[in-house]
Each structure stands twice: as structure tokens, then as C-alpha cells.
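User: Structure with zinc ion, C-alpha cells only please.
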Amino acid sequence: MKKNNITKMAIAAAALMTAFPAATTYAQKSTGWGDFKLFLDPGHSATENRGLWGYSEAQKVFSVAQYIKGYLTEYTDMPAENLKLCRNNEVDIVGLEERSDMANAWGADFFYAIHSDASSDKNTTVTLFGGWRKDGKEIEKTPNGGKAFGEILNPNLTGVMRITTRGNWYDRCYYDRAPETHANQYPYLSVNRRTNMASLLSEGGYHTIASQQQLNINADYKRLEAFAAFQSILKFRNMTNPEQTFLAGIIKNSENDVPIDGVTVKVGDKTYVTDTWESTFKKYTNNPDLIHNGFYLFEGLKAGDAVSVEFTATGYEPVTKTVVIKSNPAGQSNDNVTWLDITMTSNAPAKVASISVEDTKAVSLVDPIVITFSRKMDKESVEKAFSIDNDGEVTLTWINDYTLSVDVSKLVPLKTYNIKIDGSVAKNSQTNQPFDGNGDGNGGDDYTLSITMKEADTTPAQVVSTDPAIDGDVAYTLRPVVRVEYDEIIDWNEDKNADCMTVIDPEGNTYAGTLTHSVVNGASVLQYFFSEDLPLDKCFLVTVKPGLADLSGNLTEEFRFRFLSEYRPVVESTDLLPLDNVTGFWAPDGSGSSSGLTQEANSFTRANIGVRPESPNSACLKYDFDPDFAAGVWQIREYHSSQNIDGTTKDGVLTFWLYGDGSNNSVSAALRVRTNNKNGGIKYNLKPINYRGWHLVSWNLASDEYQHFTGTDEIADKWRFDSFFLKHEKAPEQAWKGEIYFNQMQFVKFDDTAVRKAVLHDFSSVETLKSADGGIVVRSLGDVVSVKADGNIRSVNVYNASGAMVASATPAGQTAMVATGNLAGGVYFVNVVADGGIKTVKIVR
Ligand SMILES: [Zn+2]
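Assistant:
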């Protein structure tokens, strides 16, 4: 073909490709495609595998495939009928096996599956071709070719994405690296295993990582990935790559490294405007400050030209840079991308972005006022500019360069104060512009805040929940954690309060354990961890001594409650997961079912608190739902990938310990029902987290109701642990963020034929006290006073209210009994002298 014709054809092709606005028409067609048949498989369908903010893997890889098709059409002599895509729209659902069936039926020469990954905290690529190990040697599936294509594609793709790679792998070796000889001598991945031709699957970064997903959302970023694939295909075919150039970069705010929206980038007569909330991000979030990418791309600039690039944006100083356009068609893909990342500096004066006070007419004396500025502040100048009237005494502390905390605990209740930050004194630290106190866009004016302090708190801390429930039954554990939750923070004094909780039974026996105090989500919880399992079917009395102070010094009264221990003996108990680490779990945003999370504040990590003092670790889920998430679904599927936590009967109870944060979000262990692979799906049994501290979450698989997450089959004997679910439903009482811990998941069977015998005991007839030193315990029950002590008892004398001795006992070692049947009703005092202690106890007959 003559060159003239080639140019004309390229123009025609470009005109048809409306998706190629920036492309030039100087391209030469690369020839030699021949009758090679290429099958492209953009993974998944429609909007499957949603990543952060709801943009899906399926959408991303569909775009990449369309751009590859565009480049092949524009720049090569490939006959249109020699390229087939497994899906040509974003609606149809194409099954996994359907894809290989289509390629096999069509007689493709090569199958390329395009994917994006989930679930890691490091953004990388990987390429996977069919292969396994035998006798220490790797074997590639036949026909060969996947490995060779991967060797070309991997560095090209990784290069233009500017990330790192996990490598180019025989797929079975990637998923099961260890053995000399794999048990299964065939490819691991369906698309490699079921296709009759050479094949490769690539993962282009993670759609669950914010830094990558914000780029994925940009319409043009995916052209770079397509370019890398296109170049690699031509190299694999021994064709000559045409000259293509790209100028690209990311524009960030020099003060905080946040990418900038709406920057106009100009090169000659070409213009690119970076994505804005209005143009792009509002499809994914209602929060204009959540997603930014600052990405721009020009295509088809003349290789070798030194071009001037102008950056302008409202509120920033303009920037101009000169850069020479790179080109090396024979080199790696990224040798054809000229990267120009820049920062721009804001010229907007600093203002107050937010304050922590909701009602300025009723400001807490306990919580500091937190002032957040829009720019990094010159701290010294702000402190100098800060004033408060009415002899107010406050302390200023900087949380970071943007955030000032004002301690108001010394201000007077009900009094009104005016806080001022002088705009002629305060300035930001980066550009030293005067502070814009009234937020009108011009610096130099004052910030003023009038606050009226609340009445002082005169109410002591109140108990809002307990575990076990007051007068309640313990179910499914022999070792409950006694949990007493208050409505505010207790000013805990470890020395004074360490023994403030006791647990006794009707015989006066005490139950040893460890008491802890924790502040969870702004309120205190006391927890008592028993050293041993409790006896079955018994009544217990919990006593919290009076005198616990809140932050304003108000003291609690004594608090007591009763509960009945579990009455059914354990028949069988299986430890499903100790949950003292997070091995096998994905990151919270790793599952495509996780939705509505903010960018970075979510994690699943090992924590050093546990439900048993002897195994002090658990798994901690930190979560932060995004109130502005446009799709309005907030959930975490905390997925466990090891896939071997199976049940073979539904005749039992699934339990796990959850350390609640009082968030009122709902939690569940989700199970996968496996009797019918088609409809089995995932089931869960959500429970509200309306408590702080450890609580046993239970699901009686045989009798409790549950919900279907996917699939319609009911829970049956064959099931598998799939994940923990956390759900937020935008109810006003539900917190958007928090922290919960998981521990000791078990499957337990109890003897359901057992009968409850214990009743709630009237402990008022049991006056029991134990001295710290002698271990003396005196109890009055019916017509008998019984005495126990740690050492030998020397004497037991009973006195009446006027001090006369009315009864005594002859001790025998560490116990003694006094008959009191002949005493008249009234108050008596029992005095005990024992080795190691003396104690006088008041009893009422
Ligand atoms: Zn995928």
C-alpha cells in the first residue's frame, strides 16, 4: 500500500472513533497481522465486582478492551473479523465458562483476559498463564504463548501504570507455590484451563485502592493500559509498533498532596481539564471533597518537540513547564509516555473550615473545642492572635498543622465568652497570607465565636446495659464476661477501684476473675473475666461498689444485678476460628460486596485484647463508612479466603465474641450454603451492636431466623464460614465509624433435654462480706450463721444491737456454725477472730 492511502485510511478510522478526541492522524498502519484471531475477554459483566465508591472492575476492563480494539483498528491492518470480544456492551451477563466456550468455538489463536484486582494494600500488577509444576519443573499449557505474551505485557502494563508487579506466573504455581509436583497437572484459572489456545490473564492494579481507583474513574487513564496491551500484542506478533506519544501527569496541591480538580492544562491549541465533582465524581459520592485524581492526558503530540505546558486553576498560582515529548516505539510502552507531574500552590487565604461545637449555646465543659483551618497554619501567629473575654482561661494544643484544640474545662458553667482570632496577626505557614476570619475570600479579617457554657454535670454515671442481662439467662457459654456499661466516662482509679466488682452465689462463694475498665466510643464499660467456667444452672449476684466518679466528680451508688448461668451441658464444641489473628482474611474493602467505605480508614488487623486473659489477642475491624456515598449501600463483607471452615450439621449454635463499640450498626457471621451450588449463596443473621465491650453473638442454625444475602437455598447441614458482615443503614442512632473486635468463633451443641432448675435467688437474705486480709466470710441463712476463713478461726461471737453477747460457736479449723433460731428478729453483729483477720458483720434476722 502507498503511504497516501495509509494516511487516508487512518483519517477515516479516526473520524469514526469518536472516543479518540485527542488522537492525531499521523499514524502509520502496522502491517503483517495475517489471519491471527485474537479473543479479548474483559472480565466479569455489567457492573460486577464493584470497587471503591461503586465503580466496578467490569466497567473498567470493558473500557480498556474498547480502547485496545480502537488502537488495533486504527493502527494495524487487522481485519475487523479477526478480533472478537466476549461482550460488546455493559448490560449483558456473560458467564465465566461461556467465555472460553466462545473462544474455542470461534477458533481463536490467542485468548487475553483483562482484569483488575481486589484485596491488597499494595497496588501491583500480575500476569498469569496456564501452567503447573512437575518434578520441580514448570510446564506451560499447550499451545504455548501465554508465557511469552506475559513477558512482554507485564513490564509494559506495569510501566505505564507506574506501579510494581508481582510478576508473570504459571497460574498454578502462583496460587500454590510450594510443591515439586502439583496434584493437578493442568492450569488453575478457568480461562487458562478451558481455552484450547494460548492464553493469558492480567490484573491491572487494584480497584480497591483509592490511589488507583481514582485514576480508574478517569475516562482517559484506561487508554494507557490499553496502549500497553496494544503495543504488547504487536510485539508478540513480531509487528512494528507505530509511533504513538502520550503526555500525562497528576497535578497536586503543594501543601497537602491532594490532587486538584478542574485544572486547565494547555499544550498549543489543545486543552485538558482535570476531573471535578461536577464532571465525574458526583456519580460516586455526594461529598465534593472525597475523590480527586488531578489526572490529565494528551495523545499524539509530535515526538521530540519541546512543548510548553500551562496549568491554571481558580485559587492557585499558575504554572508553566516545558517538556520534550518522548517516543520510542521499539522500546517499552512507558518509553512513549512523557510524565509531567506538578504541584500547584493555593493562593486562597486560610479560613476556619469547621469547629467541633454543635450548639454554641450549650458548650460542654468536658470536651475541648476543636478548630480546623483550611490551610496549614503558622502556629505561633495563631496563638498570638487568639483571645477570649470575660477572664476566660483556656489552653491551646495543636493536633496537627491544621487543627487547634481549645481546652475549655476551666470556663464557668452558664457563662458566655467571645473567642476571637485576629486576622491581621494570624497567617498560614506556606504563603504567610493573612487569615480570612470571616471566610469571604479576602484575608485580614477576624474570626469570632460566641459560646455559652453548659450547666455543670451533677448526675453520676448510670448503667445503660449489662451482660448477662439483668435477671437474665446466660446462653451458649459456660464462661460469660460480666459487662457493666455506663452512659458516660468514669474517672477510673486503678488502685481505688480495682476490686469494685464482686460475683457471689447463694452460698456466699465468690468467683475469682479479672476486672478491667475501658472507655469505648465516649463511655465507660467495666468487664469481669472469670478465671474458670461457671457451674451450670446457678444464680449469681454481681455487685459494683458505690463511689465510681464521673469526669465531674459525681459518685455512683451501689449497683447489683442477678443472672442465671447456662443450664445445658455442652455436648460437642468445635473451634472454627480462634480469631486471635487475621490470617486468611481480606482487607475490609477487598470484597466486591463491601460498599460505601471512605478511602483509607478501614482495616482488619490483629489486636492485643481478648475475651480470655490467657489468650489476649483478637481481630480488630476498624471501619469508616462514607455518609456521602452516592449508591447508598454501606456494608463490609470481611471475607475469609481459606475456605476450609466447614460445618456438616446445622444442629448446633454458631457463636463468636464481639467487642462492641455501641455504634448500633449490625453484625453477623455470614455462611455459604453448599448443598446446591447454584442457589446456595450466603446467609446472615444480623444483630445490632447496641453495647460496648465483649458480648457473645449466637446463631442457632436450626431455629434462628436469618436473611439471604445471595441465593435462595435455606441453611442446611453443609455450610461454610464465608465472612463477617457489618451493615450500616443510615439510621440516626447508627455511627458511621467505629472499631469492633472478633474472638473465638465456635460451633457448639448443647444438651437440649436439660431442664432449668435454678431460680433467681433472693440475695437480700444472704448478708455476705469478705475481708481482704483474713478471707473471713460470714453468711446468715435461715436459722444458721456460717463462717469461713482462710486461716484457723479462733472465736465467733454474736452481739445484739445493744452490745450484749447472745450466741457463740466453738470453731473447728477454718469453718464454724452458730445456731440463731432462738434469737428474736432484729439486727445482730457477728464478730469473727481468725488467723490473719478480724471481722464484724451486721446481719438481720
Ligand atoms: Zn476480575
